Structures are given as structure tokens and as C-alpha cells.
Amino acid sequence: MERMKIEYLSLKKITEQHSEEIQEAANQVVASGWYLLGEATKTFETAYTDYIGTRHCIGCGNGLDALTLIFRAYKEMGKLKEGDEVIVPANTYIASILAITENGLKPVLVEPYYSSLELDDYLMKRAITNKTRAVLLVHLYGRCAMNEAIAEVCKRHQLMLIEDNAQAAGCTYNQRKTGHLGHAAGHSFYPTKNLGALGDAGAVTTDDDELATVVRSLGNYGSERKYFYAHKGRNSRIDELQAAVLDVKLKYLDRENQRRKDIAEYMIAHIDNPAISLSFDPIADNVHHIFPVFCDRRDDLRQYLHDNGIETALHYPVAPHRQRCYKSLNKLSFPVTEKLARTELSIPCNPTLTDNEVEYIVETLNRF
Which domains does the chain have, with CATH numbers? Predict the structure, then answer.
């Protein structure tokens, strides 16, 4: 097959699919003269509430803020206090842990299963102490991380289940959307996400009326009404332009996720190279925000793909417990997580890829 040049992800191509509708929506926002906390935000929050299936959706500045606001709201409500422990996957993106520590809570890192990348429920049970109050379940790479074992552990120990749904918009578990499996969920609409804005944006979803009220207040300086403040809040609001863009793109999310699934299904069936392994759960739903492959010669593979015109990415080359900002965690040992960090390589998997491009990626991988 003739050499191709394939970007890891072209935001230009992603946006061009809906450019006319996006332009029209943006023009309406500009013409309205109202750029924060207006009708576009209300419209998107309602649409996303309906899509996820929760009672509430509260737009905010980004995905990290969404998680941070959830933990902060639970502190304001008296359900969490400083020093309480939150179980979180050791192989997550650092934002998950930042949200915990920013609230004075203690992250308790737990290894995933290497075979599925999902939280090891046996190790999770062993990590529970009398200070454990919550589990932050991360739907990493777009795959649903929920299962019966985790649900049972949370129920038995009366732990709050909070979802990090930054990478799994549209994923399902037992016919419910991720983002509606626990007590609350944080969502990211960073431009590269399956449902991406044209800048930073995020949201919190929940069925808890009190939590929704407190989160909305905290994201607007702690205001209960104009110039009256019930909490020491922050400024974290989705703007009208991002809300309008997301409302357009939400209509196409399921279709684009299905294209991702079709591409991933082909790659899983046809990648055949003993030097390259795949890690997936055939039962769990997966919207394939990221398609990871694993190779002991990861850097050589990445260079080889680059030489053949295929752009790749790493998710994530340095695990959170090895970061300089978390020196207190540096001495901990998480061999599965560390192996994933050494061997993971993300290859293109997005709805703008053509069938020929997908075939080229697979053939190139198989020739390595």
C-alpha cells in the first residue's frame, strides 16, 4: 500500500463536519449580546441532562473543575472532610488526582487489571480503611470501567461513587450512560474529546438536588443569588459559545462513536503482530476516545510509525505517582501502572479516518 500521512487527530476535520451548523450557532450567540449564563447554556444543559439521563447538568469551565467542584460540594454538604480517603485508579490522568488533593482529601491509588485496564476490585477492597469515603471511577480511554464487583464493594461499604467521565461521553453500562452510574460525574469537553468544544468546557451531572445546587453556586463564586454568597466559591462557568457548539455536536455524538467502534473492531480483528498487544474487555462498552496498543519497544514502534507517516500519542508516559508534584507518592510501587506507562502507544482512531487509512494503519503495525 502506498505511503500515507495520517494525523493522530485533526480538530479541523472534526469541526468541518458540522461547520455550517456551528457557524450559525455561533452567530446566534454573538447576535444575542449575552455571553455567559444565557439561553445557549440552558439549552445545552437540558439537552445533556436528557442525553445522560440525570436530573441535573451544571456546565463549568473544564473537566478538572467539574471533579473539583463535586468534591468541594460534598465537603460543603458535610459528606466529606479533609483527610478523608478517595480510591482512584493508579493509571489515571493526573486531573483525577488533582481534584482530590485540591480539596484536602487523600488519594488512595489502586492498580488496574493489565488485561482490561479496569480497576482491580480485589485490590480496591484491600485498600478500604475506616477513612475511605468515596471511589473515583475513571472511564479511561473511553471504556466503561463500571462492573458488578465495583458496584457491590461501594454498596457494601457505603462509599460514594463518583465518575470521571472525561473520556467516555456516550458510553453505556446496563443501558445507562456513563455519567449516570454513581452519585455524581465530572465531564470534560476539551476539544479532543468525543464531544469536544472549541475551547475549554466541562459539566457535572447528578440526580442529587442538593449537590446540584451547591455545585452551581460554587462555580459562580458561591453565589446563592446576585451579590449574596453562601459559599467561598470560584469562577468556573461554561460560556455561551461553547454551550452552543456542544449543543450542535451532541446530535452527532452517537453516530461518531459508532464510527469509532467500527474502526476499533476492525483493528482488534486485524492487528496481528506478536510484538504488539491489545488490552480490552470484550464485555464492557467502549467509545474508543483513545485506542491504545502496548509494545515493549514502544519508542521504536512510535518512530517506525512516524517514518511511515502515522502520527501517534502517549497516554500517559509518566504515571501520577511518579510526578514531581506528588513527591509523597514517589516511593510507592505500582508495577502494572508503570508497565502501562512504559509500553502504551495511542494510534489514530477517530470518525474522520477513511477505511483506506484504517487499513494502512493496521498493515503498517503488522509489518513492524
Answer: 252-367 (3.90.1150.10)
